[in-house]
Amino acid sequence: MYLILQILIGIVAGWLAGKIMRGRGFGVLIDLFVGIIGSVIGGFVFSLLGLHASGAIGQLVVATAGAVFLLYLVRHLK
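^ that's the sequence the OP posted. Answer follows.
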């Protein structure tokens, strides 16, 4: 059940990141996939910084930050 919740949070984070990073995008499906991967990256980076998120809203903020960062990198490397 935890994995399903994390995937759903990643999908919502990808959608939010796509809205935040307007412009030439890759489309909704790629943004959602990047959100899932970005949520993992966001959790890793925040843990390296000593920051921890609690609750669904905190996890969503961390996941969205990671997804925005990943979308920024992917769009500029494209």
